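Notes from hallway chat w/ T.B., transcribed later so I don't forget. T.B. wanted the structure written out for a chain they're using in a teaching module, and asked if we could keep both sequence and structure tokens in one place. Agreed to drop them here.
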Amino acid sequence: MRKFLISALTITLLGAALLTPAYLRYRQNAGVVPPGVRLAGMELNGASQAEVAAGLNRSFEEPVSVYYGDLRIILRPQMVGFQVDVAAMLAEAQAHNTPFNLVRVLVGEALDRPPAPVDVPLRYNLNRDAVDNWLADVASRYDRPPLPPQPILATLSIAPGQPGQQLDLTASRERVIAALTDPQTRSANLIFRETAPPPVNMAALGELLQARVEQFPGIASVFLHDIPTGEEIAIDADVAYAGMSTLKIIIVSEVYRKLDAPPDAEVSRLISETMAVSGNFTANLLLGVIDDGDPNEGVRILNTSLHKLGLRNSFMATPYDRKLPTPPHVVTEANSRTDLDTQPDPYMQTTPRDIGLMLTMLVECSRGGGTLLAAYEKQYTPAECQQALDYMSLNEVTALLTSGAPEDARVIHKHGYVADTHGDVAAIRGPAGPYVLSVFLYRPTWLEWEISDTTMRELSQAAWNYFEMVSGEQQ
């Protein structure tokens, strides 16, 4: 028993001898933060409460560099109500001031193997609404909306839209808070996402056509109808113009409505000459076919049909080249306008929309649908409408709207011109499907062919380029 007590005393004395220096160091390093305890990764042993507060605040009051891409923005912690909760951290640190912690530190020191420190995590206060408001302000200044497609008049094309850039507020908030709470890495890269640009659409084409129309030294009107989608562009498309030979489209359409069988050789000849060489005499004979020999009655039937089809701004007052002692005064909504006046022929008038829709109806009828078949269910067949279009294709004039499409493109058109007015309406089998383009130009007294030809060619080329681009995007 005595030997055991001596041994125990010896061990105790040796332990005391070994631990005394460590204990003295422990007491020397003792402060409001117990030795072996760190605050937010910082060694603050031996510091007073004021020194701890100063040290923590100094580390976390440094500004944060926030990057929106390559742009550097400074965020000061006080701007978002960031404050270190020193009292909470000290209270948590004091909870580790226990005999167990004392023994753990003393033993480690004595064995020259310091124990892993206990880390009290950062405790802080932050106004999250202020962070969100700050980020929202950054987004309002530096987000980039997507750019819509832009018309390029020089090339008669449309540049695709450009993607935009939008800040991801939720993900960016977490990065900003992480930077505010990191005493070493005081920076954050904001997260933003790319927003897709609007697709190229008819509105962009409308802007391009409008830009080209504005270069014409007179009054210019455009109507475009995309048959697959039904989308339309109308630029002063309800202005009254001289009907000229474009009304022969309506005459031929009425002839086919009249016939109950394919046209005989004589009627075929009349249609062919009317559409191929734009004969006025043969057009009048076709008006007679509409009413069994009376061209004037044929005119009346044609006008009635125009009203039924909703083409109320188009009319013929007499057959071609028939003048009355007093010119007729047919009032339409189009020729009652006072803003744009083309001095239209009092004997026959149309608008780019009306004649464009008439050709659209023929094309849709040839495809088995559309207004003609709906309005005159048993008086048209798709085959008859296709035959009417085939006769139109005999027009060998390759200028005007035809010249704006590639040489191998299928273009059916009917043009007309008088001294001050030129018009052309075409059904074009485009890269994305058929579309109808109707253009009328007016210049007081005399309209030079070169000007109208160039204008129509470029308007047609712009439309073709658009549909080619749309077709490429769909593939």
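Follow-up for T.B.: The radius of gyration is 43 Å. Might be a good example for the class.
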